[in-house]
Amino acid sequence: MNIFNFKTPLQNFLSAKSVTETLPSLGLLLLRIAISSMMLTHGWYKFSNFAEMSQSFDPIGIGGVLSASLVIFAEMFCSILLILGLFTRLSVFPLIIAMGVAIFVAHSGQSFAAKELPLLYLTFYVVILIIGPGRYSIDRMLWK
Fold first, then answer.
1. Is residue 4 part of a domain?
2. Is position 6 within any domain?
């Protein structure tokens, strides 16, 4: 019996509040940072090779420059917003669309292996859309 109601650090970590609020939000933060950091590398590669890419990149028939610009916007700008947790649900939509186009248009007729990475990204983005940014986000600070 603990008459001083003192909890060890492990007891605090495993307390109901920690398990139900803190840990899921830390998981969402980690997910947002990891997935967005990886997507940023895709966007950076496209941005740094924009001239070459825009000549041959037109998966939905709106022109190479516009297609490349929209994908770079999604992969770079929206990924930065996701890392920050700012306008999270709004910023995940362009990424979901980009991954949908990658799966169903750019990689149509290809093996599952070619579609696997965009499917994983799409899955993570849908999870973020459903669950939201979590406690550790600018959204949470702005719209408590």
1. no
2. no
pTM score: 0.83
**Closest by alpha carbon to 102, among 92, 115, 91?**
115
Tell which wins on pLDDT, 16 or 91: 91
CA nearest neighbour of 137 among 38, 43, 33: 33
Give a yes or no: residue 7 inside a domain: no
For residue 33, tell me if it sits in a domain.
yes
Which amino acid, 24?
Answer: P
- The pLDDT tens digits of the residues spanning 18-63 come to 667 788 889 999 999 999 999 999 999 999 999 998 888 888 889 8
User: Can you tell me whether residue 2 is helix, strand or coil?
Assistant: coil
Domain count, the chain: 1
Distance (Å, whole) CA 73 – CA 47: 9
Structural contact between residues 84 and 130, judged by C-beta atoms closer than 8 angstroms: no
Domain range for 74 is 26-142
